[in-house]
Design brief:
The protein is of the alpha+beta class. It has one domain. It has 3 helices and 4 strands, in the order H-H-E-E-H-E-E. It has a 4-stranded antiparallel beta sheet with strand order 1-2-4-3, covered by helices on one side. A hairpin with a 3-residue loop joins strand 3 and strand 4.
Amino acid sequence: MRFLLAGRPSVLAATLATLGLGACTGPRPFLLQGDANSVEVGYSGDVDSTLPIARRHCARFERVPRLVEAGIDVAYFNCIRG
């Protein structure tokens, strides 16, 4: 390994920086399931991070999301006509 990285300190530094930043961001919210009337978004941390996922899903049906309930790791939205 020393041979492969010799003379390439910038590659090593960039790799280590990327790995370090990836560990800090944590899991991102994700779509669990949904239809034209509702959507469930999985998340970790701040429930506000789920809104862009819900917006994108509901927009497919020309609707907007309204938060119904925020569980420990799932946010439940209704998709309503805007």
